[in-house]
Amino acid sequence: MSFFNKIFNKEKKETLDKGLEKSKTSFFDKLNKAVAGKSKVDDDVLDNLEEVLVSSDVGVTTTLKIIKRIEARVAKDKYVGTDELNKILREEIAGLLSEIDSGNETEFKLPKHENGPHVIMVVGVNGVGKTTTIGKLAKQCKNAGLKVVLGAADTFRAAAIDQLQIWADRTDVPIVKQEMGSDPASVAFDTLQSAVQQNADVVIIDTAGRLHNKVNLMNELTKVKRVMQKVIPNAPHDVMLVLDGSTGQNAFEQAKQFTAATEVTSLAVTKLDGTAKGGVVIGISDQFQIPVKYIGVGEGINDLQIFNKFEFVDSFFKR
């Protein structure tokens, strides 16, 4: 199928293949047991496949959609052998993800705006890899020849400010910060003003990752956005939610909480290389209808990859 024409460069594809190795191995171990002794895809095989997909963190809602698509295919083709199941899964999941407006890019690029830099506000609970993702994204921006400014608006923890400073030093980009306990909106305001003065292309704002009180979180993020718009009218242009892929179904719950608290416009799913729960990317893409922009498939500074759904599905189902 044209879905699976190779569009990533060889090095990036090898990194993606390696990063999804645990997820793929776990999935195929379960799939092989599900079809053992069967030559034809029948109701029993589909029931077993449903269990495999759910236990691989694809999520119940998305799993039922996939099963429905495969049922329709089996009904149409009359006889489908279990040896064809992998190919069918690849095609139907790629088809399902194609209905979402995301995951088509192969190269890093950000939109340009006439009235100032592109502003990304990054949200997510502590420990999901938020600061690391910001650092790696800053590196991607620099590699693309863009001028970047970071804003340390997670003033709730001193460690968050220190960690962002380390990434700013590592990637050699300027950072705007204040003391722990400062008003996050004030930090965001100063960051955008500084970025405009420096004629920056991109601003990445870190925010606190507290979910214990959704109302407080909503109020804080709303205030940060409102204050930023005093400097750049449409800021932030992207509210990116970072999710830890290794937490599986917990990532779904975090996505649910944050999308209820603020308008999330994109997702980054991290730590996929250290887990067998890579199926969560498929489920989250489908269930929330929010574009997955980046996936983390390694610890290296260049291992934050642009999410391309076809390359992802190809790597996930590669035998």
Structure summary:
This is Signal recognition particle receptor FtsY. Involved in targeting and insertion of nascent membrane proteins into the cytoplasmic membrane. Acts as a receptor for the complex formed by the signal recognition particle (SRP) and the ribosome-nascent chain (RNC). The chain has 319 residues and is of the alpha/beta class.
- End-to-end distance: 16 Å
Main-sheet strand order equals 3-2-4-1-5-6-7-8
Q: How would you sum up the global shape?
A: elongated
- In the predicted model, the low-confidence regions spanning at least 5 consecutive residues are 1-6
Number of helical stretches of at least 4 residues: 12
> How do the SSEs run, as a string of H and E?
HHHHHEHEHEHEHEHEHEEH
The overall average pLDDT, rounded, is 89
Largest sheet: 8 strands, mixed
What is the C-alpha radius of gyration, as a whole number of Å? 21 Å
Structural class: alpha/beta
Number of strands: 8
In helices, the fraction of residues equals 40-55%
- Percent of residues in β-strands: 5-15%
Subcellular location: Cell membrane; Cytoplasm
Function: Involved in targeting and insertion of nascent membrane proteins into the cytoplasmic membrane. Acts as a receptor for the complex formed by the signal recognition particle (SRP) and the ribosome-nascent chain (RNC).
Pfam family, one: SRP54
Enzyme class: hydrolase
How does this model look, in words?
- This protein has helices at 10-19, 21-34, 43-55, 60-77, 85-98, 130-143, 158-171, 184-197, 214-228, 249-261, 280-288, 309-316; strands spanning 118-123, 148-153, 175-176, 202-207, 238-244, 266-270, 292-296, 304-306.
- Helix 9 packs across helix 10 (249-261).
- The relative contact order is 0.18.
- The chain is elongated.
- The two termini are 16 Å apart.
- It is of the alpha/beta class and 319 residues long.
- The chain has twelve helices and eight strands.
- An eight-stranded mixed β-sheet has the order 3-2-4-1-5-6-7-8, sandwiched between helices.
